[in-house]
Amino acid sequence: MSQPKTGLGPREAEFLTTFASEGRRVFTVQEAQPFWGEAEYASNTLGRLEAGGWIRRLERGTYVIVPLEAGPEHARSENALVIAAHLLRPSAIAYCSALHYWQMTEHLPNAVYVQSTSRKHQRAKEILGISYRFVTVVASKFFGLSERSVGRQTLTVTDREKTLVDAADRPDLCRGIALLGHALRTTWSDLDHGKLEEYLYRWPTGSPLKRIGYMVESMNLPLVDREERLDRWRSSLSSGIVDLDPGRPAEGQITTRWGLRLNVGETWITGARPARLQAACPAESDPRTLTRTTADEEERLVAELERLGIRYLSRRTSYQAPGVRPPEQLLADLVRQPHARVRSAVIALLLLNPRYAQAVPAALQRVSGRERLTLRSLYEAAFLLQQEHAERLGPLLGERWDWLPDLVSVDLGLPPGGNPRERLEVLDRELRRRTRVNANWMGTYEAVVEKLIRQLKT
Protein backbone atom coordinates (compact mmCIF):
# COMPACT_ATOMS: atom_id res chain seq x y z
CA MET A 1 0.00 0.00 0.00
CA SER A 2 1.37 3.43 -0.96
CA GLN A 3 2.10 5.94 1.76
CA PRO A 4 -0.37 8.85 2.00
CA LYS A 5 1.25 12.06 0.86
CA THR A 6 1.49 15.09 3.11
CA GLY A 7 1.38 18.71 1.92
CA LEU A 8 4.20 20.32 -0.01
CA GLY A 9 5.94 23.59 0.67
CA PRO A 10 6.52 26.01 -2.21
CA ARG A 11 10.21 25.14 -2.72
CA GLU A 12 9.55 21.43 -2.31
CA ALA A 13 6.88 21.57 -5.02
CA GLU A 14 9.25 23.51 -7.27
CA PHE A 15 12.00 20.95 -6.69
CA LEU A 16 9.78 17.96 -7.57
CA THR A 17 8.30 19.73 -10.57
CA THR A 18 11.72 20.76 -11.90
CA PHE A 19 13.30 17.34 -11.56
CA ALA A 20 10.24 15.46 -12.87
CA SER A 21 9.82 17.74 -15.90
CA GLU A 22 13.53 17.29 -16.72
CA GLY A 23 13.12 13.52 -16.62
CA ARG A 24 15.27 13.13 -13.48
CA ARG A 25 12.91 10.85 -11.57
CA VAL A 26 15.91 8.98 -10.11
CA PHE A 27 18.53 11.24 -8.58
CA THR A 28 21.27 11.32 -5.98
CA VAL A 29 21.80 13.62 -3.02
CA GLN A 30 24.75 15.15 -4.87
CA GLU A 31 22.52 15.95 -7.86
CA ALA A 32 19.89 17.55 -5.62
CA GLN A 33 22.36 19.60 -3.57
CA PRO A 34 22.80 22.46 -6.10
CA PHE A 35 19.06 23.12 -5.93
CA TRP A 36 19.03 23.33 -2.13
CA GLY A 37 22.43 24.81 -1.45
CA GLU A 38 24.09 23.41 1.65
CA ALA A 39 24.56 19.64 1.81
CA GLU A 40 23.02 19.32 5.27
CA TYR A 41 19.94 21.32 4.28
CA ALA A 42 19.53 19.25 1.11
CA SER A 43 19.77 16.01 3.11
CA ASN A 44 17.23 17.20 5.69
CA THR A 45 14.79 18.31 2.98
CA LEU A 46 15.04 15.00 1.14
CA GLY A 47 14.35 13.28 4.43
CA ARG A 48 11.14 15.31 4.84
CA LEU A 49 10.08 14.50 1.28
CA GLU A 50 10.72 10.82 1.92
CA ALA A 51 8.73 10.93 5.17
CA GLY A 52 5.92 12.72 3.32
CA GLY A 53 5.71 10.01 0.68
CA TRP A 54 6.98 12.15 -2.22
CA ILE A 55 10.24 10.32 -2.84
CA ARG A 56 11.47 6.83 -2.02
CA ARG A 57 15.00 5.77 -1.13
CA LEU A 58 16.41 3.21 -3.58
CA GLU A 59 19.75 2.87 -1.86
CA ARG A 60 21.94 5.03 0.32
CA GLY A 61 22.06 8.49 -1.27
CA THR A 62 19.78 7.63 -4.21
CA TYR A 63 16.06 8.45 -4.48
CA VAL A 64 13.16 8.09 -6.90
CA ILE A 65 10.25 10.51 -7.22
CA VAL A 66 6.96 8.79 -6.40
CA PRO A 67 4.20 9.72 -8.90
CA LEU A 68 0.91 11.14 -7.71
CA GLU A 69 -1.59 8.30 -7.90
CA ALA A 70 -2.58 8.06 -11.56
CA GLY A 71 -6.16 8.13 -12.72
CA PRO A 72 -8.93 10.69 -12.85
CA GLU A 73 -9.83 10.43 -9.15
CA HIS A 74 -6.58 12.11 -8.23
CA ALA A 75 -6.07 14.33 -11.27
CA ARG A 76 -7.69 17.22 -9.49
CA SER A 77 -6.22 16.67 -6.03
CA GLU A 78 -4.90 19.77 -4.29
CA ASN A 79 -1.30 18.64 -4.61
CA ALA A 80 -1.81 18.23 -8.36
CA LEU A 81 -3.27 21.74 -8.53
CA VAL A 82 -0.42 23.19 -6.49
CA ILE A 83 2.16 21.57 -8.75
CA ALA A 84 0.40 23.10 -11.77
CA ALA A 85 1.31 26.55 -10.48
CA HIS A 86 5.01 25.69 -10.90
CA LEU A 87 4.71 24.41 -14.46
CA LEU A 88 3.83 27.67 -16.19
CA ARG A 89 3.54 31.35 -15.35
CA PRO A 90 1.31 33.24 -15.56
CA SER A 91 -1.35 30.57 -15.29
CA ALA A 92 -4.58 29.61 -13.56
CA ILE A 93 -6.51 26.42 -12.92
CA ALA A 94 -9.45 26.63 -15.34
CA TYR A 95 -12.19 24.89 -17.33
CA CYS A 96 -13.25 21.46 -16.04
CA SER A 97 -10.72 21.58 -13.19
CA ALA A 98 -12.07 24.94 -11.99
CA LEU A 99 -15.66 23.68 -12.24
CA HIS A 100 -14.69 20.83 -9.96
CA TYR A 101 -12.68 23.04 -7.60
CA TRP A 102 -15.69 25.32 -7.05
CA GLN A 103 -17.91 22.22 -6.68
CA MET A 104 -20.05 23.17 -9.65
CA THR A 105 -19.73 19.54 -10.65
CA GLU A 106 -18.60 16.34 -9.01
CA HIS A 107 -17.39 14.97 -12.32
CA LEU A 108 -13.74 14.03 -11.88
CA PRO A 109 -11.53 15.61 -14.57
CA ASN A 110 -9.18 13.28 -16.41
CA ALA A 111 -6.48 15.97 -16.39
CA VAL A 112 -5.63 19.25 -14.70
CA TYR A 113 -6.57 22.11 -17.05
CA VAL A 114 -4.28 25.14 -16.92
CA GLN A 115 -5.00 28.44 -18.69
CA SER A 116 -2.20 30.82 -19.62
CA THR A 117 -1.26 33.62 -21.99
CA SER A 118 2.17 32.05 -22.50
CA ARG A 119 2.85 30.19 -25.74
CA LYS A 120 6.13 28.71 -24.54
CA HIS A 121 4.81 25.35 -23.43
CA GLN A 122 3.62 22.00 -24.64
CA ARG A 123 -0.11 21.48 -25.07
CA ALA A 124 0.00 18.51 -22.70
CA LYS A 125 2.47 17.11 -20.21
CA GLU A 126 2.58 14.36 -17.62
CA ILE A 127 4.22 15.23 -14.31
CA LEU A 128 4.43 12.81 -11.37
CA GLY A 129 1.89 10.54 -13.04
CA ILE A 130 -0.72 13.30 -13.55
CA SER A 131 -1.79 14.66 -16.94
CA TYR A 132 -1.78 18.44 -17.38
CA ARG A 133 -3.38 20.18 -20.32
CA PHE A 134 -2.31 23.75 -21.12
CA VAL A 135 -4.63 26.11 -22.96
CA THR A 136 -3.27 29.35 -24.39
CA VAL A 137 -5.62 32.35 -24.44
CA VAL A 138 -5.20 35.94 -25.56
CA ALA A 139 -4.55 38.47 -22.81
CA SER A 140 -8.09 39.86 -23.06
CA LYS A 141 -9.43 36.47 -21.89
CA PHE A 142 -7.05 36.12 -18.95
CA PHE A 143 -8.80 37.78 -16.03
CA GLY A 144 -11.18 36.92 -13.20
CA LEU A 145 -8.53 35.10 -11.15
CA SER A 146 -8.79 34.09 -7.50
CA GLU A 147 -5.89 33.38 -5.17
CA ARG A 148 -6.65 30.44 -2.89
CA SER A 149 -4.64 29.08 0.03
CA VAL A 150 -3.84 25.38 0.05
CA GLY A 151 -1.84 24.45 3.11
CA ARG A 152 1.37 26.47 2.97
CA GLN A 153 0.91 27.40 -0.66
CA THR A 154 -1.25 29.56 -2.86
CA LEU A 155 -2.79 28.53 -6.14
CA THR A 156 -4.55 30.64 -8.75
CA VAL A 157 -7.91 29.50 -10.08
CA THR A 158 -10.46 31.28 -12.24
CA ASP A 159 -13.26 32.62 -10.02
CA ARG A 160 -16.77 31.18 -10.22
CA GLU A 161 -18.12 33.65 -12.73
CA LYS A 162 -15.04 33.50 -14.98
CA THR A 163 -15.14 29.70 -14.83
CA LEU A 164 -18.67 29.77 -16.27
CA VAL A 165 -17.70 32.21 -19.02
CA ASP A 166 -14.73 30.00 -19.90
CA ALA A 167 -17.05 26.99 -20.04
CA ALA A 168 -19.38 28.89 -22.38
CA ASP A 169 -16.42 29.87 -24.55
CA ARG A 170 -14.91 26.36 -24.65
CA PRO A 171 -17.56 23.75 -23.84
CA ASP A 172 -15.22 21.15 -25.32
CA LEU A 173 -12.90 21.62 -22.32
CA CYS A 174 -15.81 21.14 -19.90
CA ARG A 175 -17.46 17.96 -21.23
CA GLY A 176 -19.95 19.83 -23.36
CA ILE A 177 -22.76 22.31 -22.93
CA ALA A 178 -24.75 20.05 -20.56
CA LEU A 179 -22.16 20.51 -17.83
CA LEU A 180 -22.40 24.30 -18.20
CA GLY A 181 -26.17 24.10 -17.81
CA HIS A 182 -25.82 21.93 -14.73
CA ALA A 183 -23.29 24.35 -13.21
CA LEU A 184 -25.47 27.39 -13.90
CA ARG A 185 -28.54 25.85 -12.33
CA THR A 186 -26.94 24.38 -9.23
CA THR A 187 -24.82 27.43 -8.33
CA TRP A 188 -26.97 30.27 -9.65
CA SER A 189 -27.96 31.55 -6.22
CA ASP A 190 -24.28 31.75 -5.16
CA LEU A 191 -23.10 33.78 -8.14
CA ASP A 192 -22.44 37.48 -8.39
CA HIS A 193 -24.76 38.17 -11.32
CA GLY A 194 -23.37 41.66 -11.81
CA LYS A 195 -19.84 40.27 -12.10
CA LEU A 196 -21.02 37.58 -14.52
CA GLU A 197 -22.65 40.23 -16.70
CA GLU A 198 -19.50 42.37 -16.56
CA TYR A 199 -17.39 39.42 -17.68
CA LEU A 200 -19.75 38.61 -20.57
CA TYR A 201 -19.57 42.21 -21.83
CA ARG A 202 -15.80 42.23 -21.38
CA TRP A 203 -15.28 39.04 -23.39
CA PRO A 204 -13.69 39.73 -26.80
CA THR A 205 -16.07 37.39 -28.67
CA GLY A 206 -19.85 37.02 -28.48
CA SER A 207 -20.31 33.27 -28.10
CA PRO A 208 -20.39 33.10 -24.26
CA LEU A 209 -23.08 35.80 -24.02
CA LYS A 210 -25.23 33.98 -26.58
CA ARG A 211 -24.95 30.61 -24.86
CA ILE A 212 -25.34 31.80 -21.26
CA GLY A 213 -28.09 34.25 -22.17
CA TYR A 214 -30.07 31.56 -23.92
CA MET A 215 -29.63 29.10 -21.06
CA VAL A 216 -30.54 31.64 -18.36
CA GLU A 217 -33.73 32.48 -20.26
CA SER A 218 -34.72 28.91 -21.18
CA MET A 219 -34.09 27.59 -17.65
CA ASN A 220 -35.98 30.56 -16.17
CA LEU A 221 -33.16 31.40 -13.76
CA PRO A 222 -34.04 34.38 -11.52
CA LEU A 223 -32.43 37.77 -12.12
CA VAL A 224 -33.03 41.24 -10.74
CA ASP A 225 -34.86 43.21 -13.47
CA ARG A 226 -34.80 40.00 -15.45
CA GLU A 227 -36.60 41.04 -18.64
CA GLU A 228 -34.75 44.34 -18.90
CA ARG A 229 -31.43 42.63 -18.38
CA LEU A 230 -32.13 39.88 -20.92
CA ASP A 231 -33.24 42.52 -23.43
CA ARG A 232 -29.97 44.35 -22.80
CA TRP A 233 -28.01 41.15 -23.36
CA ARG A 234 -29.81 40.45 -26.63
CA SER A 235 -29.21 43.99 -27.89
CA SER A 236 -25.47 43.48 -27.25
CA LEU A 237 -25.15 40.24 -29.24
CA SER A 238 -22.58 40.02 -31.99
CA SER A 239 -23.67 39.19 -35.52
CA GLY A 240 -23.67 35.67 -36.90
CA ILE A 241 -24.86 32.26 -35.73
CA VAL A 242 -22.88 29.96 -33.43
CA ASP A 243 -23.60 26.41 -32.32
CA LEU A 244 -24.97 25.97 -28.81
CA ASP A 245 -22.55 23.06 -28.44
CA PRO A 246 -19.60 23.45 -30.83
CA GLY A 247 -18.57 19.87 -30.15
CA ARG A 248 -21.64 18.49 -31.95
CA PRO A 249 -22.63 18.50 -35.64
CA ALA A 250 -23.72 21.91 -36.98
CA GLU A 251 -27.33 20.97 -37.58
CA GLY A 252 -30.61 21.90 -35.95
CA GLN A 253 -33.05 24.77 -35.50
CA ILE A 254 -31.71 28.34 -35.45
CA THR A 255 -32.95 30.87 -32.90
CA THR A 256 -32.22 34.38 -34.18
CA ARG A 257 -33.31 35.67 -30.76
CA TRP A 258 -29.95 34.54 -29.37
CA GLY A 259 -27.95 33.94 -32.54
CA LEU A 260 -27.67 30.22 -31.85
CA ARG A 261 -28.04 26.95 -33.70
CA LEU A 262 -29.73 24.56 -31.26
CA ASN A 263 -27.73 21.49 -32.19
CA VAL A 264 -28.14 19.40 -29.05
CA GLY A 265 -31.69 18.01 -29.10
CA GLU A 266 -34.92 19.54 -27.88
CA THR A 267 -35.30 17.20 -24.92
CA TRP A 268 -33.18 19.53 -22.81
CA ILE A 269 -32.58 22.80 -24.65
CA THR A 270 -36.16 24.05 -24.75
CA GLY A 271 -37.48 26.30 -22.03
CA ALA A 272 -40.49 24.01 -21.62
CA ARG A 273 -38.35 21.15 -20.32
CA PRO A 274 -35.28 22.63 -18.62
CA ALA A 275 -35.17 19.75 -16.15
CA ARG A 276 -33.36 17.66 -18.73
CA LEU A 277 -30.47 20.09 -18.61
CA GLN A 278 -29.78 19.42 -14.97
CA ALA A 279 -30.39 15.71 -15.36
CA ALA A 280 -27.77 15.67 -18.10
CA CYS A 281 -24.88 15.84 -15.64
CA PRO A 282 -25.28 13.79 -12.47
CA ALA A 283 -22.60 13.94 -9.83
CA GLU A 284 -19.97 11.21 -9.71
CA SER A 285 -21.17 9.61 -12.95
CA ASP A 286 -21.33 10.15 -16.68
CA PRO A 287 -23.63 13.05 -17.60
CA ARG A 288 -25.72 10.78 -19.82
CA THR A 289 -26.60 8.19 -17.18
CA LEU A 290 -28.90 9.97 -14.71
CA THR A 291 -32.41 8.59 -15.11
CA ARG A 292 -35.65 10.55 -15.07
CA THR A 293 -36.63 8.57 -11.97
CA THR A 294 -33.59 9.91 -10.12
CA ALA A 295 -34.36 13.46 -11.20
CA ASP A 296 -37.99 13.11 -10.06
CA GLU A 297 -36.88 11.79 -6.65
CA GLU A 298 -34.54 14.74 -6.23
CA GLU A 299 -37.36 17.16 -7.06
CA ARG A 300 -39.64 15.47 -4.52
CA LEU A 301 -36.97 15.72 -1.84
CA VAL A 302 -36.35 19.41 -2.53
CA ALA A 303 -40.10 20.03 -2.36
CA GLU A 304 -40.30 18.27 1.00
CA LEU A 305 -37.38 20.32 2.29
CA GLU A 306 -39.33 23.43 1.30
CA ARG A 307 -42.18 22.30 3.53
CA LEU A 308 -39.65 22.08 6.35
CA GLY A 309 -38.47 25.65 5.73
CA ILE A 310 -35.42 25.08 3.51
CA ARG A 311 -36.01 27.21 0.43
CA TYR A 312 -32.56 28.06 -0.93
CA LEU A 313 -32.33 25.02 -3.24
CA SER A 314 -33.24 25.81 -6.85
CA ARG A 315 -36.29 24.08 -8.34
CA ARG A 316 -37.03 22.79 -11.83
CA THR A 317 -40.79 22.49 -11.44
CA SER A 318 -43.63 23.93 -9.39
CA TYR A 319 -44.36 20.58 -7.76
CA GLN A 320 -45.72 20.90 -4.21
CA ALA A 321 -45.08 18.03 -1.82
CA PRO A 322 -48.31 16.81 -0.18
CA GLY A 323 -46.37 15.79 2.91
CA VAL A 324 -42.94 14.91 4.30
CA ARG A 325 -41.60 11.39 4.68
CA PRO A 326 -40.52 10.19 8.18
CA PRO A 327 -37.34 11.88 9.49
CA GLU A 328 -35.13 8.78 9.38
CA GLN A 329 -36.21 8.03 5.81
CA LEU A 330 -35.73 11.63 4.71
CA LEU A 331 -32.19 11.73 6.09
CA ALA A 332 -31.30 8.41 4.46
CA ASP A 333 -32.81 9.37 1.11
CA LEU A 334 -31.00 12.72 1.07
CA VAL A 335 -27.53 11.17 1.44
CA ARG A 336 -28.34 8.72 -1.39
CA GLN A 337 -28.73 11.56 -3.90
CA PRO A 338 -26.08 12.01 -6.62
CA HIS A 339 -25.83 15.79 -6.29
CA ALA A 340 -23.81 17.36 -3.47
CA ARG A 341 -26.19 20.33 -3.20
CA VAL A 342 -29.00 17.97 -2.15
CA ARG A 343 -26.90 15.76 0.10
CA SER A 344 -25.43 18.74 1.94
CA ALA A 345 -28.95 20.03 2.67
CA VAL A 346 -28.84 17.56 5.57
CA ILE A 347 -26.83 20.24 7.39
CA ALA A 348 -29.52 22.87 6.83
CA LEU A 349 -32.22 20.41 7.82
CA LEU A 350 -30.53 19.69 11.17
CA LEU A 351 -29.73 23.33 11.91
CA LEU A 352 -33.27 24.47 11.15
CA ASN A 353 -34.95 21.45 12.75
CA PRO A 354 -32.67 20.19 15.57
CA ARG A 355 -35.28 17.59 16.57
CA TYR A 356 -34.24 15.62 13.48
CA ALA A 357 -31.10 14.65 15.41
CA GLN A 358 -33.22 12.05 17.20
CA ALA A 359 -33.70 10.26 13.86
CA VAL A 360 -30.01 10.07 12.94
CA PRO A 361 -29.29 6.68 14.62
CA ALA A 362 -32.25 5.09 12.82
CA ALA A 363 -31.23 6.71 9.53
CA LEU A 364 -27.71 5.30 9.89
CA GLN A 365 -29.23 1.83 10.08
CA ARG A 366 -30.88 2.41 6.69
CA VAL A 367 -27.63 3.17 4.86
CA SER A 368 -24.22 1.57 4.60
CA GLY A 369 -20.74 2.13 3.23
CA ARG A 370 -20.05 5.54 1.77
CA GLU A 371 -23.61 6.76 2.40
CA ARG A 372 -23.20 6.05 6.11
CA LEU A 373 -19.92 7.99 6.14
CA THR A 374 -21.68 10.84 4.32
CA LEU A 375 -24.49 11.02 6.88
CA ARG A 376 -22.08 10.90 9.81
CA SER A 377 -19.87 13.61 8.35
CA LEU A 378 -22.82 15.87 7.52
CA TYR A 379 -24.22 15.46 11.02
CA GLU A 380 -20.83 16.23 12.55
CA ALA A 381 -20.54 19.29 10.34
CA ALA A 382 -23.98 20.49 11.44
CA PHE A 383 -23.05 19.87 15.10
CA LEU A 384 -19.85 21.93 14.81
CA LEU A 385 -21.32 24.67 12.62
CA GLN A 386 -24.14 25.16 15.11
CA GLN A 387 -21.57 25.79 17.84
CA GLU A 388 -19.54 28.13 15.66
CA HIS A 389 -22.54 30.16 14.45
CA ALA A 390 -24.76 29.96 17.55
CA GLU A 391 -24.88 33.73 18.00
CA ARG A 392 -26.09 34.18 14.43
CA LEU A 393 -28.47 31.23 14.26
CA GLY A 394 -30.06 31.48 17.71
CA PRO A 395 -31.97 34.76 17.21
CA LEU A 396 -33.10 33.66 13.73
CA LEU A 397 -34.49 30.32 14.94
CA GLY A 398 -36.14 31.58 18.11
CA GLU A 399 -38.17 28.85 19.80
CA ARG A 400 -36.96 26.26 17.29
CA TRP A 401 -33.42 26.52 18.64
CA ASP A 402 -32.01 23.52 20.45
CA TRP A 403 -28.46 22.23 20.78
CA LEU A 404 -27.54 19.25 18.63
CA PRO A 405 -26.04 16.39 20.66
CA ASP A 406 -22.60 14.98 19.86
CA LEU A 407 -23.63 11.69 18.22
CA VAL A 408 -20.92 10.64 15.78
CA SER A 409 -17.56 12.19 16.74
CA VAL A 410 -16.30 8.92 18.19
CA ASP A 411 -17.49 6.93 15.16
CA LEU A 412 -15.55 9.29 12.88
CA GLY A 413 -12.44 8.95 15.03
CA LEU A 414 -12.31 12.66 15.83
CA PRO A 415 -10.49 13.73 18.98
CA PRO A 416 -12.58 15.34 21.73
CA GLY A 417 -12.22 18.98 22.67
CA GLY A 418 -10.98 21.91 20.66
CA ASN A 419 -12.92 24.80 19.22
CA PRO A 420 -15.45 24.18 16.41
CA ARG A 421 -13.21 25.67 13.72
CA GLU A 422 -10.28 23.42 14.61
CA ARG A 423 -12.55 20.36 14.74
CA LEU A 424 -14.04 21.22 11.33
CA GLU A 425 -10.51 21.29 9.94
CA VAL A 426 -9.85 17.88 11.48
CA LEU A 427 -13.10 16.58 9.95
CA ASP A 428 -12.04 17.95 6.56
CA ARG A 429 -8.69 16.14 6.76
CA GLU A 430 -10.31 12.92 7.97
CA LEU A 431 -12.74 12.90 5.05
CA ARG A 432 -9.93 13.44 2.57
CA ARG A 433 -8.11 10.49 4.10
CA ARG A 434 -11.12 8.17 4.15
CA THR A 435 -12.57 9.04 0.76
CA ARG A 436 -9.27 9.74 -1.01
CA VAL A 437 -11.06 12.72 -2.55
CA ASN A 438 -9.42 16.12 -1.98
CA ALA A 439 -12.64 18.08 -2.25
CA ASN A 440 -13.18 21.33 -0.41
CA TRP A 441 -15.35 19.75 2.30
CA MET A 442 -15.15 22.74 4.64
CA GLY A 443 -16.11 25.08 1.85
CA THR A 444 -19.20 22.98 1.13
CA TYR A 445 -20.28 22.99 4.77
CA GLU A 446 -19.69 26.72 5.20
CA ALA A 447 -21.69 27.47 2.04
CA VAL A 448 -24.73 25.63 3.44
CA VAL A 449 -24.85 27.57 6.69
CA GLU A 450 -24.35 30.89 4.89
CA LYS A 451 -27.19 30.11 2.46
CA LEU A 452 -29.45 29.15 5.34
CA ILE A 453 -28.66 32.33 7.28
CA ARG A 454 -29.28 34.49 4.21
CA GLN A 455 -32.61 32.74 3.68
CA LEU A 456 -33.66 33.19 7.31
CA LYS A 457 -32.87 36.91 7.16
CA THR A 458 -35.10 37.51 4.15
Structural class: alpha+beta
Biggest pleated-sheet summary: 4 strands, mixed
| Rg, nearest Å | 24 Å
Strand content: 5-15%
Note the main attributes of this structure.
single chain; 458 residues; alpha+beta; Arc Repressor Mutant, subunit A; three-stranded antiparallel beta sheet; 47% helix
Structure description:
- The strands form 4 sheets. Strands 4-5-7-6 form a 4-stranded mixed beta sheet. A 3-stranded antiparallel beta sheet has the order 1-3-2. It has a 3-stranded mixed beta sheet with strand order 10-12-11, covered by helices on one side.
- Helix 16 (345-352) crosses helix 21 (441-457).
- A hairpin with a 2-residue loop joins strand 2 (55-59) and strand 3 (62-65).
- The protein has helices at residues 10-21, 29-36, 39-51, 78-84, 95-101, 160-169, 177-187, 193-202, 207-218, 226-235, 266-269, 275-279, 292-307, 327-335, 340-343, 345-352, 360-366, 369-388, 390-397, 420-435, 441-457; strands spanning 26-28, 55-59, 62-65, 92-93, 112-116, 124-127, 130-136, 145-150, 153-158, 242-243, 253-255, 260-262.
- It is an alpha+beta fold and 458 residues long.
- It has 3 domains: 10-65, Arc Repressor Mutant, subunit A (Orthogonal Bundle); 73-279, no CATH class; 292-457, no CATH class.
Please give a quick description of this structure.
This protein has 458 residues and is α+β, with helices and mostly antiparallel strands. It is 47% helix and 11% strand. The protein folds into 3 domains: 10-65, Arc Repressor Mutant, subunit A (Orthogonal Bundle), CATH 1.10.10; 73-279, no CATH class; 292-457, no CATH class.
